[in-house]
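Hi support team,

I'm opening this ticket because the web form for multi-chain structure prediction keeps timing out on my end. I have pasted the exact lines I submitted so you can reproduce it. The total is 481 residues across two entries, so I didn't expect it to be a heavy job. Is there a limit I'm missing, or should I split the entries? Thanks in advance, R.K.
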Amino acid sequence: MTWKQMFTSSIGKKLVMSFTGIFLILFLIVHVSLNACIWANDGGEMFNKGAHFMGANIVPRILEIGLFLGLILHIVQGYMLTVQNRKARSIGYAVSYGNGGSKWYSRSMALLGTLVLLFLILHLSNFWLPNRSSQGLSLGGEIDLYAKMQETFSGRDAVTVLTILVYVLGCAALGYHLAHGFQSAFKTLGVHNKRYHIMLKSLGYGFSIIVPLAFAMMPLSFHFGWL
Amino acid sequence: MEHYNMNLNLKVWRQQNGKSKGEFKMYRVEDISSEMSFLEMFDVLNEKLIQDGEEPVAFDHDCREGICGACSMYINGKPHGPWQANTTCQLHMRAFKDGDTVVVEPWRANAFPVIKDLVVDRTAFDRIIQAGGYISVNTGNAVDGNALPINKDKADASFAAAMCIGCGACVAACKNSSAMLFLSAKVSHLALLPQGEPERHSRVINMLAQMDKEGFGACTNTGACEATCPKEISLTNIAMLNKEYLTASLVADK
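Hello R.K., no limit was hit. The queue was backed up. Here is the completed structure from your submission:
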């Protein structure tokens, strides 16, 4: 069995989804922890220090390339698997099985993932693009990201309200995506012991509620002046 | 439960052969006893069709006691009908009320092509088994059954996996038409026992390769298969299959 065969069989493709998924979960932990510094109530000083560390240090900058590669792999593989799986049944049923045997979000991972991707495009163009274009290839020289958040979310105009709505919906889609993805990733890695499985399932549900909720609270906090 | 008779409207998939285009046809069956099995109700329908000079509905059946895995009807949107842990042959008509319309379809998956009406070709499962679902045993005298110590919990888990009757309901229920629950039951069943050890690694790799070749989809852990399985094969087996695959592919020589 070659490495290629190992990762291109039906379980191999799941393994790719699982590895990249867990990598993206780890990224979410870093992202939400750093962003939570906005609630330090110091006018964004701590948050901007954190942002400076991520932008001026070579290690996170290299990891960022890995993050994009992992994200692209997760997206491309996910779509390819969805297409391939749909092709396995040319003629559908007249009466569908529905929610009897599975949760709707476990069957809608491609749709939820697409919603997260659409949100991500807006999110990157709001913050990542302006910041990186100001930095270029140099380390450091970030824009004031706290001020940028304030500018993006504080306004009362229609564009701001719409942006916040997309952020909240994007976080909800992420939550449901994680509610299935978190535990499924570990099943794919072969965690079959009941003890670990029950623990990871609870951990997954907790993670899929707390992390997206924290993210959704960020634009809302700026908008409603809770900072 | 009290016995009662019922009249039903059946919407049944009719298809002359694998190449022809099928369609639903409506039939009415009358005076069906609540104590009949679903297949006996189909026998009544077929007798009526024969008397009327029409072609009877073709469907798979063999033991009619829930252990052979031959019956395969997708009834009202669920493989083997509305009851849990049940095969079509063990589904009794008391599951329905007088005047109900019952929709009956064949298993839908490209790896299970329709042969005729409700009969699908499930030989893909046989080829998966042939690819590795066996153990090596030297011929000669039968060995003492207790010569090889086996952990009781593992023996029980192995037996639970061996309950799989290969009916294909997991494939029929899965949105991806994946045969992963079937494959995982067959792999776990042998991987949990010392007798399965010699071919442990080649088994999972070869059986999975055959499954992929047959055109089944990949698993997304939704759990629809587990919920519909007449033998309640656990999703845990799929996690175990994944572990077996990961180990086998990591230690493979080439």
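A quick check on our side: Chain A has a mean pLDDT of 94. Let us know if the file doesn't open in your viewer.
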